[in-house]
Automatic annotation (TrEMBL):
<dbReference type="InterPro" id="IPR004548">
    <property type="entry name" value="PrfC"/>
</dbReference>
<dbReference type="Pfam" id="PF16658">
    <property type="entry name" value="RF3_C"/>
</dbReference>
<dbReference type="GO" id="GO:0006449">
    <property type="term" value="P:regulation of translational termination"/>
</dbReference>
<dbReference type="InterPro" id="IPR032090">
    <property type="entry name" value="RF3_C"/>
</dbReference>
<feature type="binding site">
    <location>
        <begin position="143"/>
        <end position="146"/>
    </location>
    <ligand>
        <name>GTP</name>
    </ligand>
</feature>
<dbReference type="GO" id="GO:0005829">
    <property type="term" value="C:cytosol"/>
</dbReference>
<feature type="binding site">
    <location>
        <begin position="89"/>
        <end position="93"/>
    </location>
    <ligand>
        <name>GTP</name>
    </ligand>
</feature>
<feature type="domain" description="Tr-type G">
    <location>
        <begin position="12"/>
        <end position="281"/>
    </location>
</feature>
<dbReference type="InterPro" id="IPR035647">
    <property type="entry name" value="EFG_III/V"/>
</dbReference>
<dbReference type="InterPro" id="IPR027417">
    <property type="entry name" value="P-loop_NTPase"/>
</dbReference>
<keyword id="KW-0547">Nucleotide-binding</keyword>
<dbReference type="GO" id="GO:0005525">
    <property type="term" value="F:GTP binding"/>
</dbReference>
<dbReference type="GO" id="GO:0016149">
    <property type="term" value="F:translation release factor activity, codon specific"/>
</dbReference>
<dbReference type="InterPro" id="IPR038467">
    <property type="entry name" value="RF3_dom_3_sf"/>
</dbReference>
<dbReference type="InterPro" id="IPR041732">
    <property type="entry name" value="RF3_GTP-bd"/>
</dbReference>
<dbReference type="InterPro" id="IPR005225">
    <property type="entry name" value="Small_GTP-bd"/>
</dbReference>
<keyword id="KW-0648">Protein biosynthesis</keyword>
Length: 533
């Protein structure tokens, strides 16, 4: 086989996705079950234990160990049914960071995991919007159906209303009031029975290919049978068709009901997922579309992680491969720097270990040793020194603090430290304008980043910080760069700052003051996500 054929074969079997959810919806459990099917982990509990302090795959930073949480995200790769699947793992705790958003820039599809009893929650909404912005296909898995849940119609309505996406249930739950019977598979007209530990292996199919088959009546009893017939009739009449085009563009989500903990519905989900999820696709660049099957390697940096191994003070740049083949030790153009670099110590992140990769293909994520030359959004390209992918946006910080070194003599180290963390994308640095002194306002997507900042400045730069938290919650970039923000009518609490690229940004305490600013300033246009230039 020639190289192009090899690459093409590998592209065809790649599926790279992220699970988006609110903490506690069951992401760790689902991830673990998926890995289990792929034989990637031997014992249930290995992913889970990351949350405890026994053993942690991503225990790279002391702070993670202390808090028993995963601050960073990692990538898990496994094989199933001939496919090579990459799950981009994202932090599952309340204080998630900008990394969580950025990881979605490297995914080709997303699985939105919802707790059936809770419905669409806050963090899911935020992550969903990033997926929607990218227009990637979004699957929905409604979890914890083994317990009482919200009415499935209510859940569908919530998804459609809150997230503004059409939905199509692939299966339909029976007994959602705490007496879960299983699901009706609409495509196959069969009932997949929930029998506690049996993991839905018992399937009863309809002889007529219809929900009205009397075999289901005997199975479910009159109450549940009648309810199921009514529900399915309603869905068939009032619901959307499954439109693949709408799904592909992120405008329709297929819904699966199941229970990750009991394994129920996980395998049917995985199989349908593999059938529907896209393989790595074409990506636009400054030099035109880049097709993954090309024999030239391209990729972009979506995440930088420092100090994964505190003993070595190393820095790892995570690269999403977009085209061609990556092979160990290869040299590529670092387009922004305009020079060739050798990608040394390439690593891939399996369920448990970091292993050295010999080769990798589009859709895969590799981590390479970074001697301090990479930034988030950098393009790496083989053979074309000009090809650049669009940068990764800056996501809106939601927490702000005024930060100064406790010892003013340490100003130089302080600046070095915050620049380093900003480059890694852990924090956003703003400067307050017109106040006579140089004041840095640090913005973070998750409040935990302030702890990371404090910890790392002390440990790596020997700087103690004074952190004064601010009440602001929203950063908005002024769309028109010719506007002088000093001339705007703003509430007294609105703060004017400049980002690292000297663009004006307004910091607001609440949504009300954003509306007020827009109203009083002739429909002032504000953006919540800024493009990196
Ligand atoms: P997360 O990563 O999204 O934060 O969620 P995680 O998988 O840790 O799950 C959160 C809790 O929900 C766990 O319970 C987990 O066992 C439970 N859970 C996950 N899937 C299901 C499900 O399908 N049905 C039910 N009933 N529960 C589910 P916990 O009590 O917090 O932890 P543990 O004691 O089970 O370890």
């Amino acid at each position: 086989m020639n190289l192009k054929d090899i690459i093409s074969k590998e592209v065809d079997r790649r599926k790279t996705f992220a699970i988006i959810s609110h903490p506690d919806a069951g992401k760790t459990t689902l991830t673990e079950k998926l890995l289990l099917y792929g034989g990637a982990i031997r014992l249930a509990g290995s992913v889970k234990s990351r949350k405890t302090n026994k053993y942690a795959v991503s225990d790279w930073m002391e702070i993670e160990k202390q808090r028993g949480i995963s601050v960073t995200s990692s990538v898990l790769q496994f094989e199933y049914g001939g496919y090579c699947i990459n799950i981009l793992d994202t932090p599952g705790h309340q204080d998630f960071s900008e990394d969580t958003y950025r990881t979605l820039m490297a995914a080709d599809s997303a699985v939105m995991l919802i707790d059936g009893a809770k419905g669409v929650e806050e963090q899911t909404i935020k992550l969903f919007h990033v997926c929607k912005m990218r227009g990637i296909p979004i699957f929905t898995f409604v979890n914890k159906m083994d317990r009482a849940s919200k009415d499935p119609f209510e859940l569908m309505e919530e998804i459609e209303q809150v997230l503004k996406i059409r939905s199509y249930p692939i299966n339909w739950p029976i007994g959602t009031d705490g007496d879960f019977k299983g699901v009706y598979n609409r495509e196959l007209a069969q009932i997949e029975l929930f029998e506690g530990g049996k993991h839905g292996q018992n399937i009863v199919s309809s002889t007529k290919g219809s929900v009205e088959d009397k075999v289901f009546l005997d199975l479910l009893g009159e109450h549940y049978y009648n309810k199921l017939c009514e529900d399915i009739e309603l869905l068939d009449i009032a619901g959307d068709e499954f439109d693949k085009k709408k799904f592909d563009s992120g405008n329709l989500t297929p819904i699966f009901f199941g229970s990750a903990m009991t394994n129920f519905g996980v395998q049917p989900f995985l199989e349908k997922f593999l059938q529907l999820a896209p393989k790595p696709g074409i990506k636009d660049s400054s030099e035109g579309p880049v097709i993954p099957e090309s024999d030239k390697f391209t990729g972009f940096v979506f995440k930088i992680q420092a100090n994964m191994n505190p003993a070595h003070r190393d820095r790892i740049a995570f690269i999403r491969i977009c085209s061609g083949r990556f092979s160990k030790g290869m040299s590529v153009y670092h387009v922004r720097e305009g020079k060739e670099v050798k990608l040394s110590q390439p690593q891939q992140f399996m369920a448990q270990d970091r292993t050295i990769v010999e080769e990798a293909y589009p859709g895969d994520i590799i981590g390479v040793f970074d001697p301090g030359i990479f930034q988030i959004g950098d393009t790496l390209s083989e053979g074309n020194a000009k090809l650049e992918f669009e940068g990764i946006p800056v996501f809106p910080a939601e927490h702000f603090a005024r930060v100064i070194p406790a010892d003013t003599m340490k100003r130089k180290q302080f600046l070095k430290g915050i620049n380093q963390l900003a480059e890694e994308g852990a924090i956003q640095v703003f400067k307050q304008i017109d106040i006579g002194i140089e004041a840095f306002i640090i913005g973070a997507v998750g409040v935990l980043q302030f702890e990371v900042l404090e910890y790392r400045l002390k440990n790596e730069y020997g700087v103690d910080l004074k952190i004064q938290k601010l009440p602001h919650r929203f950063a908005r970039w002024i769309a028109d760069s010719t506007i002088d923000p000093r001339k705007l009518t703003l509430t007294s609490s609105t703060m004017i700052v400049q980002d690292e690229e000297e663009r004006y940004v307004l910091l607001f305490e609440n949504e009300w003051s954003i509306s007020w600013a827009k109203e009083k300033n002739n429909s002032l246009e504000l953006h919540d996500i800024a493009k990196k230039s």
